[in-house]
Amino acid sequence: MPDWGDPAAWLCVVGMAPGLQGANRTGRPFTGDGAGVILYETLARFGLAEGTYAARADDGFRLRGAFIANAARCAPPANKLTPEELRTCRPWLEAPLAALPNLRVVIALGADAHKSAVKALGGKLPKAPFAHGAEHRMPSGLRIVDSYHCSRLNTNTGRLTPAMFDAVFAAAVRLGRGA
Prior knowledge:
This protein is 35% helix and 16% strand. The chain is α/β, with parallel strands linked by helices and 179 residues long. The protein has a single domain (4-176), classed as 3-Layer(aba) Sandwich (Uracil-DNA Glycosylase, subunit E), CATH 3.40.470. The strands form 2 sheets. Strands 1-5-2-6-8-7 form a 6-stranded mixed β-sheet, sandwiched between helices. A two-stranded antiparallel sheet has the order 3-4. Strand 7 (135-137) and strand 8 (143-147) form a beta hairpin. The radius of gyration is 15 Å and the shape is globular.
């Protein structure tokens, strides 16, 4: 599954893996599944997207200053990644992160995305534990902001509310501006 977004992005959102009914079906990350609705609405609200998201890869919706990548390249069985799968897929996360010359902030959606992003950016997990809203500085100076994944399960149960998700993006914008 290809990564997607603005090649001049300062922000990269890292998800767990392509959704079986979303990206695997449509060819664009978070497109066509429930998680995409909250993610793309939030990106647009923070000025990181333009156009109208219509859950189709050809809807004209574009990211501006943002990029999306995943910790894994394929949908894992039972929606759970093994440590071996995370290790095996890490080069496919390292490559887009290294190719973004203006990258300053990564938002990690969920614990698996967090683990992979920390390691891809040269950090150590004991020094950067996952917690919703946590901010971590990597050895390179890049910052990671953690969020619960914007899955339907998390949003329907209230584990992740729109206000909580907005707070993560507000922190990323603050860090991206060097505040």
